[in-house]
Each structure stands twice: as C-alpha cells, then as structure tokens.
Task: structure prediction
Amino acid sequence: MNFEIPKNLSDAIELQKQISKKVVVKDIIKKINYVGGIDVHYRDKEVILGYVVVSYPKGEIVEQKLKVFSYKFTFQYIPEFLCFLEGPYIIEFLEELSQKPDVLILDGHGIAHPRRCGLASYVGVLAEVATIGCAKKILYGKYSSELGLKRGSYV
Result:
C-alpha cells in the first residue's frame, strides 16, 4: 500500500486536499455482507489496533483481531491530521485480515473535516474500502440541535 507521511503541516494540508478529491460520497455498494470496525490505542511506544467484523444483517461476529505495532511513524497528534498518525497503521492492518469488510467504521472524521479528509476519508481512499467516520467531537461544521437522549437520535 502506498501512503506518504508528510514532512510538515503544509505538505499534510496539500496531501489531504489531493486525497479529498478522490473521496466517493455516493452509495455504490450493491450489497453489504460484512461491517467492520477498527479502533486505535497508544501505549508507551506501541500502537494497538482492535478489529471486529460482523455479518450483516445478522450481526454475528465473523472475525476479531488485535495487533500491536512498534511506533514507527512520526507525526504529531493534531486532531485535523489524525489520518497521518493512525491511517498508515490501519491500512497495514487491513492487508492482514482474512475477512475484508464491505463497510468499515472508524473512530475519526471522514468528510466532516476542514479539508474533507479525516481518518475515514484517508483510509477509504488509500485502502479502497467504503468507510464511515464516527468521531467523538465535532471538528468542522455545526449542528442545529442537541442530540436527543433516545437511542437512534441524530442531529
């Protein structure tokens, strides 16, 4: 997998702009059989990735895996540039999985990003997989109302 770690923030911004032009924001998946999720955790000089894929629509676990990487990419933690910190690990990890997901959910932004290239966009384009970014905090844009307390609420 070819991915580039930018040398500075200026290069990172330019690379995000280039990648964002390749993001497909329309429904092109004919059938979804497997939905995957990956999350990343840092501990000392290690990066730990957890992955689970479930069948759809049954929701049965098909594969789950943990992988520990020695920290080898150097890019500072800045929320707008999370894709360069976590993306390379996720892309490398995806290549090792026995069951590739039709859709991958990531703990990070996708197109709701100042340059439309958050972690989900970056991984989606470079790994050629449909992704959904599911971030904890708003990074770009505004929402018109508060999220309701009822399960399934949205803004």
Observations:
- The helical segments are 9-20, 82-94, 119-127.
